[in-house]
Specification:
0% strand; mainly alpha; 70% helix; 553 residues
Length: 553
């Protein structure tokens, strides 16, 4: 009798736990079914894609399913690699480029998952076969470049994907990239790697220096400059830097470039271009390489008359009192005779005003520019207008200055106002939202304005970005905005092909919050298969985030 009572009590005690586990399993199964349904739609999309695009889609599917169903994921990857391994008879240059571009995308996707697949993919990046050479003999010299196939850049992107969770693995992949070529995106790995493990970063930086010395690969040299001298290249003063000897060695490579260029006898010598690029680190060259500085100073004097912009950069770096106030920069602009030089000073003054939080003054400086000065700034003038207005409006909102917020946004040129307002609602942090009424008004103005002025064929990007805000604050309007976005998307004449970058991944969580069947029908109405697949992949990614690792007993 006592045992029966104890058994009953034990059953009652465990019942809630068993019920909770059963509910969790039931919920997980529902997410699994939904993930499989989206995957089935993607596999149907794959049949309508070219073989190369199909390979990338299989890679993306494998990336999502790797944790949940590794056997199936491996099959997709193997099939994708088999596609890029096959070399057609008499492969043309265009066909080869497409095949190698696909292999690069797969390399970025696969490398964090499996080393054997990585090695197999690396064999694709071999010198061209004889048939390809005969089809494009003019490209033979180009193939001698260490990184003509871009595999090094793809490997760096793969390393970036794992550096936060596994710095050692990221460093190994980075080293493999440097053995493959001269990646020009190396700084994107070195900066987070130094924050995670300085010793690993030092080792990889040394390897990169060795590659940079070989034939003076300029792009990797420039990338290393942002790592070694972040402040001088416009970065944060808080960014950790490599040891002094490594920084000096990098500068020595540049000094050698300058001296070699001077003695080359080439009339198109890039000497003054290099000197102008080095202007922000003149003081570092003098400090770290005092003997070489004597030669550099002579070259600097020769380059002062090369061009107005080069002279400006050199003189600014040589000033005893730097131009570090808005007033001093505006005075320098007033004194400049050259339009380009004057524009640079004005844009720097506007940027400095923005950095000091004086957004109204920053925008006034932009608006006071002449037609020629705006033309010299190009797209920067436009983007600064809506970005800075949005930043300033957010600051006003945080402090409850709603009148000033509206005045700042409404002060932007009328054709740019919708985009400034869109940036405001997109960038406004959720944790600072107090009153939603001002946000809703600006959100509605942004959507109506973009419909009115258009965005030169890019409306769908703005609609997709605003969809996240609409789902959060006005979910009843989300279906209509998604419909408008897809209508705009279907007007694109040259859709972007699938690649390793999941550029619509941010949209998945918002789509997941909307009505499942409305979203399914909307995505099915997209005429471009790559775009349709990209959006379905983003939805699949968000769905599979709800699949927790199954408990193991």
């Amino acid at each position: 009798m006592t045992r029966s009572i104890h058994a009953s009590l034990l059953i009652l005690a465990l019942a809630p736990l068993c019920f909770a586990q059963s509910a969790q399993k039931g919920e997980r199964d529902l997410w699994l079914v939904r993930s499989q349904n989206i995957t089935n739609d993607l596999l149907k999309d794959a049949t309508d894609l070219s073989s190369m695009q199909r390979a990338i889609l299989w890679g993306k599917l494998a990336q999502r399913w790797w944790r949940e169903d590794q056997k199936r994921a491996r099959t997709w990857i193997a099939n994708a690699i088999e596609i890029v391994e096959q070399v057609p008879n008499k492969e043309t240059q265009d066909e080869r480029e497409e095949r190698l571009e696909t292999a690069r995308a797969l390399l970025t996707i696969v490398t964090p998952l499996d080393q054997k697949f990585t090695k197999r993919l690396m064999t694709v990046f071999t010198p061209r076969d004889k048939s390809a050479e005969s089809a494009a003999p003019e490209s033979t010299e180009k193939s001698e470049e260490p990184d003509n196939n871009g595999s090094a850049d793809a490997l760096i992107e793969a390393a970036i994907a794992v550096v936060k969770d596994d710095p050692k693995r990221a460093a190994e992949i980075g080293a493999l990239a440097l053995r493959s070529g001269a990646p020009d995106n190396i700084e994107q790995l070195l900066l987070p790697l130094r924050a995670a493990d300085p010793k690993l970063a030092d080792s990889l930086f040394e390897q990169a220096l060795a590659v940079a010395k070989d034939a003076h690969k300029s792009m990797i040299l420039n990338a290393l400059m942002f790592v070694a001298f972040p402040v001088q290249r416009g970065g944060s003063a808080e960014t950790p830097v490599p040891p002094e000897p490594m920084r000096a060695e990098l500068l020595q490579i540049y000094v050698s470039l300058v001296t070699d260029s001077m003695t080359s006898g080439d009339k198109q010598s890039p000497t003054c271009g290099i000197v102008s690029w080095l202007a922000p680190v003149f003081s570092e060259i003098e400090r770290l390489l005092p003997k070489q500085w004597l030669v550099m100073r002579q070259v600097i004097n020769q380059c002062r008359s090369a061009s107005p912009l080069a002279q400006q950069r050199i003189e600014d770096a040589s000033r005893s009192e730097p131009l570090n106030t808005v007033e001093s920069l505006l005075n320098a602009a007033d004194a400049a005779n050259d339009t380009d030089v004057r524009t640079v000073y004005k844009s720097r003054a506007a940027y400095l005003a923005k950095e000091h939080g004086d957004y109204e003054r920053a925008l006034r400086i932009l608006n006071d520019m002449t037609k020629e000065e705006r033309a010299f700034m190009g797209d920067s003038w436009t983007s600064f207008q809506w970005n800075w207005a949005a930043d300033g409006a957010i600051e006003h909102y945080k402090h409850g200055r709603f009148r000033e917020m509206n005045l700042l946004l409404d002060g932007v040129p009328s054709d740019l106002q919708p985009f400034a307002k869109a940036m405001f609602v997109m960038w406004l942090p959720k944790d600072v939202v107090s009153e939603t009424a001002p946000i809703l008004q600006i959100l509605n103005d942004a959507i109506a304005g973009i419909k009115r002025v258009g965005a030169t064929g890019d409306e769908f990007n703005w609609y997709f970005s605003l969809l996240r805000v609409v789902v959060r604050y006005q979910p009843a309007d989300a279906n209509a905005l998604l419909k408008d976005a897809i209508a705009s998307l279907n007007k694109v004449k040259d859709p972007e092909p699938l690649n390793a970058h999941d550029w619509l991944n941010y949209l998945g969580p918002s789509l997941l919050e909307m009505d499942e069947f409305v979203v399914k029908d909307a995505l099915a109405s997209i005429t471009s298969v790559p775009y349709r697949a990209e959006l379905r992949v983003s939805l699949l990614n968000a769905t599979m985030q709800h699949l927790k690792p199954a408990s193991r007993n």
